[in-house]
Amino acid sequence: MISRHAHAIVTPGRVVVICMIMGAVLALTMTVALVAGTADVSFSHIIGIITGSLPHDDPLRLIVLKIRLPRIILAGIAGFSLALGGVVFQAILRNPLADPFILGVSSGSAFGAVLAIFFGLGFSFGVPVCSFAGALLTIYLVMSLGAKRMGMESSTILLTGVIINAFFTAVIMFFISVSADERLHSMLFWLYGDLSRSRIGQLGFIAPIVLAVFLWLYSLSKELNIITTGDDIAAQLGVNVGAVKKTCLVLVSLLMGLVVAFSGLIGFVGLIVPHLARMALRADHRMLIPVASLGGAIFLIAADTLARTLVSPGELPVGVVTAFMGAPFFILLLRKRGGQWSRS
Amino acid sequence: MEPVLSLQNIGFCYGQQRALAGIDLRLMDGEILGIIGPNGSGKSTLLNLMGGLLTPTDGTVSLRGRPLSELSRPELARDVAMVAQENYFRFAFTALEVVLMGRYPRLKRLQFEGRKDIDAAMHALDVTQAADLADRPIHELSGGERQRVLIARALAQEPRVMLLDEPTSFLDLKFKREIFRLIAALSRDTGLTVALVSHDIDLAAMYCSRLVMLKQGAVYTTGLPGDVVTAEHIGAVYECPVLVDTNPATGRPRTSLV
Predict the structure, then answer these.
(1) pLDDT higher at A147 or B190
(2) DSSP category for residue A268
(3) With an 8 Å Cβ cutoff, is B71 touching chain A?
(4) What's the domain range around B76?
């Protein structure tokens, strides 16, 4: 007999409902983040700004719109991209612990950025371009050294990434050691994740790219599902495995280049958030990709709000906050689950 | 009778390394063909050529008279299903979700599985006696249960031909028997055509209607199990002395090392 009871599988309706819930949580997090900070902004100010009843030259209005809002949006976009990149890399490498850091893409793009800062290039143009070039260079190296064969065997790619990561980390340390004191602070701070430089103009540039990459990757989610169970079977079912993997590698590099350029190295988002999403919603990427991406946005906005309020009026690099939260979280998880990473 | 799959003068090289040469083989409707031979004799390569995962260096593979090169991958996947040897279950898909992947070649680009696909998947799980596993995470299943789910995924493709690469390696005796009985039942009840690679000569001889024995990338001999599995053939191909007698329970040949 064919059983007729409802099975726990992903349907478009379920994806929409869960994403709407995530969207509501995101809106709430953003509102809290707008209110939190050294300057005393209240909810009524926020409502005043939205309804336009607050005078245009009110300093609080400027703080909210010119400083906090761009920063919150950048944190959201960065978190969204990091989690998205994490989910996709974990799928194509069939490893729940993979993330763009492990493949060296992040350190490659950080290398580009550090080089740019070292030579005094600006944060609005020089740093992003060099950082993106660094990401592309890394992925080119990983693919030409580790993935020569079309099959792109996961362990080879992973190993190549680890080596490249180590190399670029050394190069970055070299530039930090020899750089002039006045650039050292901005270099180090940026390296650990710095969302304070965000401008509305940049956001208009990043957001459409991130959205386009997201849609493209989302359109591959069914293929990613099958690839996680084996390359041969995926090829046999009609998935163009080599093309899907290459597309994902290049798109995620683009994403990482952008994120690193505008916000520095922010670790753990690409690991924790997809992991939590898998624990709650299992493995189907048609659900996982949008939910983890939105979750990444929520997580990083929250982490950045902590980064700028914990030692107020001073500020922490947001990468320090995510690492403080991430490392213990992983140790707990590892102990509790006895090393079993994929349980539903 | 027209063969379902026919291989004409197939050769295949991995780079400079020749793996198969001069293979002529016809897979007939409803038969269970067992491919046996020692390690490195080209068994899996042959199966992958039959499934279109590899493209032959020489010769053509045709599905009901049409060369595989003229078929698109989804087109081929609607007729020929494979159960691969290497499977990864690092992520918590349920058994049903895994079986639904078999519907991929029948879905449009961004289409979600519908009622029809779920029914087909549940039917496949039913046939492999794994329906009660539908909502269980695949990585929590035992080896035998998992193999049933993977065969169900292949069945969900609604294929006419199923190719299985070592379907019972890593399984213990009970599951080995269960899987082979399942394959035999599928062939008998639904007319499914099967080709499988096996390391286990006795099991292959017991359940297959025909065997092909490979030696160093060429067909050494092919025919009924009783004609293929002889002490002389096995001695020559596996370079190992064996005693072959008849299993009194099945009437099929049985090998013992001597």
Answers:
(1) B190
(2) S
(3) no
(4) 5-257
DSSP state of B113: P
Tally of CB atoms within 10 A around B108? 6
Q: pLDDT at residue B181 above 90?
A: yes
How close, in Å, is residue B246 to chain A by CA atoms? Answer: 37
Domain count of chain B? 1
Q: What tens digit of pLDDT does each residue of B132-156 get? A: 999 999 989 998 899 999 999 999 9
Q: What is the pLDDT of residues A122-153, one digit of tens each?
A: 777 788 788 888 988 888 887 777 655 544 56
Are B159 and B82 in contact, with CB atoms under 8 Å apart? no
CB atoms within 10 A of CB B163: 29
Can you tell me the ipTM of this complex?
0.91
Distance CA B205, CA B226 (A): 8
Q: Taking the C-alpha atoms of A73, A74, A80 and A82 in order, what is their torsion angle to the nearest 10 degrees?
A: -170
Look at residue A152 in the predicted model and tell me its pLDDT: 55
Assign domain A12-337 one CATH number from 1.20.58.60, 3.40.50.920, 1.10.3470.10, 1.10.150.130: 1.10.3470.10
Contact B118 A237 (CB under 8 A): no
- Best mutation target among B53, B73, B88, B91 (most A Cβ atoms within 10 Å) is B91
- Does the beta-carbon distance from A341 to B90 stay under 8 Å? yes
- Helix intervals (H) in A124-240: 126-141, 154-178, 181-191, 200-218, 221-227, 231-236
Q: Which of B89, B96, B105 lies at the smallest CB-CB distance from A238?
A: B105
Task: Assign residue B65 the CATH number of its domain.
Answer: 3.40.50.300
